[in-house]
Amino acid sequence: MKKRLFKNLLFSLTASAMAWAFSSTVFAADVTLRAVTYAPPTKFEDSMAVFKSWIEKVKERSDGRVDIKIIGGPEVFPVNDQVNAASKGLVDVVLAFTSHAPAVPEVETVFLSKVSPQEERENGYVALMDEAHANINMKFIGRASTDSGFYIFSRKPIHSLEDFKGMKIRSHTGYDPFFKSLGANPMGIGISEIYGALERGLVDAAPYNLFVHDMGISEVTKYVLDNPFWRSHTTMILMNRNKFESLPQEIQDILIEAQIENEAEMAEIVQAMKAEEREKLEEAGVTFTELSPEEAQEWDRLSVDIRYEDLADLLPPEQLQRIKSMLLGE
Question: CA torsion 159→162→167→173, rounded to 10°?
Answer without folding.
Answer: 100
